[in-house]
């Protein structure tokens, strides 16, 4: 018997968009693909050149998405995040630069 695919977990970013959260790393939506699949890039792709990405797909039963494919290795440690009082997920560095 195969294991159940992991459910996709989403958190709201400071701009209000959804981020995919997986193993302590966040990913932003890059491409919509066929059959409801979505490609997500590591949030550190532009700054650090990290090439890790994830493909999500609609769950076959129930609602929500599953992790369909996780590719690449991160070239950095997971960033430090916290939830703001209004429920947004903010990277500590962003909060420092934005609110100092």
From TrEMBL:
GO MF term set: zinc ion binding
Alphabetical list of InterPro entries matching this protein: Znf_FLYWCH
FLYWCH-type domain location: 10-76
Keywords: Metal-binding, Zinc, Zinc-finger
Tree of life domain: Eukaryota
Gene3D superfamilies for the chain: 2.20.25.240
Protein name, UniProt field: FLYWCH-type domain-containing protein
Natural source organism: Euphydryas editha (Edith's checkerspot)
